[in-house]
Amino acid sequence: ATARLTLDPGFRVGDLNRRLFGSFVEHMGRSVYTGIHEPGHPAADADGLRQDVMDLARELGVTLVRYPGGNFVSNYRWEDGVGPAADRPIRLDYAWRSIESNAFGLNEFMTWAGRTGVEPMMAVNLGTRGVAEAMDLLEYANHPGGTALSDLRRSHGVAEPHGIRLWCLGNEMDGPWQMGHKTAEEYGRLAAETARAMKRFDPTLQLVACGSSNAYIDTFASWEATVLEHTYEHVDMVSLHAYYQPVDGDVDSFLASGAEMDQMIGSVVATADHIGAKLRSKKKIKLSFDEWNVWYQSRFPGESALEWRTAPRLIEDVYDTVDAVVVGSLLITLLRHADRVDVACQAQLANIIAPIMTEPGGPAWRQTVFHPFALTARHARGTVLRVEPRSPVIETARYGEVPALWATATYDEESGDVAVFAVNRDRTSPLTVTLDLRPLPGLRVAGHVVLDGSGAAAAAVNTREEPDRVRPTAVDGTRTEDGRLTVELPPASWSMVRLV
Ligand code: AHR
């Protein structure tokens, strides 16, 4: 089969926002404890922060990390996690039926974020708490000093305010599983009042209202409409969450997950713009896709089946090559919407459905899904080009006909470099893609790397014993002729082609 696309700097989606390469650390399972934080580990620094994990997070290219939840935040008291370690209470976390030691909290996270070089995205609890506690956290975190809570922070050894700019107004408040779950009206009012108060403290804060927790929940789109009716002029973004897996073994549809993500983004943009039109507002609400990934949710028995334990092994999915191809395709979708999606967070960073795995006291390694993220974060630069592929279609049970080729490209005006990211969703045949480069003369191929999810490689995984079994391989299948580049994409594969 053949497909084609044109790379033309005259046709742009928008500037690539580096915040699209975000991740997520929740107090859940081993994401924090024995994930990023493990005092006594041979690779831990003086504060118990695992430097092997920090190194991998930097290599992954993560720019921003959302914290501390997730469902966890909806029953969290941030005060429990600050101050002398010996005084911190041990609590029950009702989100994940776990024991929370509170050995790690806001100030430890900010130390970790600073050392790792990532921007923090902080969530407030709007489940069991409200405006007052959000304001207390904001004063503690961001006020310089001279007030009760800012001086409390200083007494905890943090002289300078943290200056956290990006805040989530709760988490998945539409979900009945959420502690303090609310109707759209209830949440919309609470989010609006919390946002108004927070912007009184600092009008430059960027605030994210909760959208739907998935596109299948009954209230999808009507939830966003109601919440935005209340919050439109007070917030900057609305959140989206989505997890993908092969349902009943339907891998063809799974490989087309990017099409579902694409439609979800379109639906939320349409809903937000509808409210903007009703309100006669000049403002455009941006999107924060602050939880996305492959997650084999069907393997998770549910919270009610969990025992009260500290840092249990929860949803530690081991990803194969096809999962990595899907992760690459989801990143392509996010880039294709760089004009409206300002923030995105792969959920999560370590151990919990994560690119980075760790063993307590032992090594840290890269899962298969690490690779497409790291390469996209490293090489996608500058402007996202509006590529309009012409592609054969494949039939899927869940999404009907979808194009076999899913692609995007970035163009760095300063260096002139181009990076093309492409997925062949077809599991049965390779795809020959012709790229018309005539609007960008003089480019030569600097490399083509592939994650090939076809044949026996489909089910290959990386483990502690074999951490580098799956990694992208450099291939030499490109040809250039008359300003046209021809690239071979194996079945069920993700590719990156760099042109300099
Ligand atoms: O990332 C795991 C969980 O998925 C988060 O806590 C929650 O927000 C979502 O349902």
TrEMBL record:
EC number(s) stated in the UniProt entry for this protein: 3.2.1.55
Catalysed reaction, written as an equation: Hydrolysis of terminal non-reducing alpha-L-arabinofuranoside residues in alpha-L-arabinosides
Domain of life, per lineage: Bacteria
Keywords linked to the UniProt accession: Carbohydrate metabolism, Glycosidase, Hydrolase
SMART domains in the cross-refs: Alpha-L-AF_C
Domain Alpha-L-arabinofuranosidase C-terminal: 290-493
Top-level enzyme category: hydrolase
Record InterPro entries: Alpha-L-AF_C (IPR010720), ASD1_cat (IPR055235), GH (IPR017853), Glyco_hydro_b (IPR013780)
Subunit structure: Homohexamer; trimer of dimers.
Family in the record: Belongs to the glycosyl hydrolase 51 family.
Protein name: non-reducing end alpha-L-arabinofuranosidase
